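can u do me a favor
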């Protein structure tokens, strides 16, 4: 298998687990930043939307 496939798979895994890991840490995030748990959840949602919008743009920018 080409190396690019392995790199792409690792990148998708890292992006997916980063959002899910943050969702599991909501109580700690909210206490660290002195905000409510729903507000901390909103920041995770904004992060995920940023990934949704940014990933295709980054893919188009890095075409050959």
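np, heres the sequence
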């Amino acid at each position: 298998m080409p190396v690019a496939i392995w790199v792409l798979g690792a990148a998708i895994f890292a992006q997916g687990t980063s959002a899910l890991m943050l969702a599991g840490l909501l109580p700690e995030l909210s206490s660290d930043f002195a905000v409510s748990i729903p507000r901390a959840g909103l920041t995770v949602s904004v992060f995920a939307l940023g990934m949704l919008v940014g990933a295709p743009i980054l893919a188009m920018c890095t075409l050959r």
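Helices lie at 3-24, 26-32, 37-61. hope that helps!!
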